Amino acid sequence: MISLAGRDILHAWGKFLFTGIGLGLLIGVTLTMAGVYRGMVDDGKALLDNSGADLWIVQKDTLGPYAEASSVHDDLYRGILVMPGVAMAANVTYLTMQIRKGEADVRAMVVGISPGAAGTPGWPPHLIDGRQITRSHYEAVADVASGFHIGERIRIRRNEYTVVGLTRRMVSSSGDPMVFIPLKDAQEAQFLKDNDAILQSRRRNAENPGLQPPRRARPARFGDRLAKQQPLRECRPRHPQAGSPGR
Fold this sequence. Notes:
Radius of gyration: 35 Å
Shape: elongated
């Protein structure tokens, strides 16, 4: 039987060659698609697992912190901490933006973490170099996929941050590397307008008086009323006339 198969291949070796190439490409494409799918699922699970949270508290009628914008009051976690079964609660913010690195921009997900220590929800679970954030401002921990290095200074909105630590496999669901900064700095970066936006807003308000609120008249003060009722008079001391005896 093997001899017959060998004779058949020799008789039509061109068909056998092209058939083998086609089957190889088909198997390769199938394995590639399966690998890409498993990689996307793994990245999505890594984002949830590395956050260290078992339950997310989000705004009502929203799809969560990753699929849709959601905001709650920053003091809500105090009420959650006193609930039975809650061991730890913390605030966290997520914001996808462009980070300035020298003359280039790097797309990343900026994560604002509340003060605490390693193990606090939202913090990077492990580092491969450097240390965790210890100051309340202007320090950052970045994923190695961002291309940042220890001691490098990056610019987020108006402020500059020093990279003090590096982590691995901390990416968003779209594959953007994460950059961790203090919570207050992240909130400021999220809601702060740049200088050009502020100047344009002031210019528009100045060119459209109807957009400006009416000015209220300043209430009259007691001193102003007294000045209207009793106008000031110029008083001069009397001098003795020349030649008259002084008293």
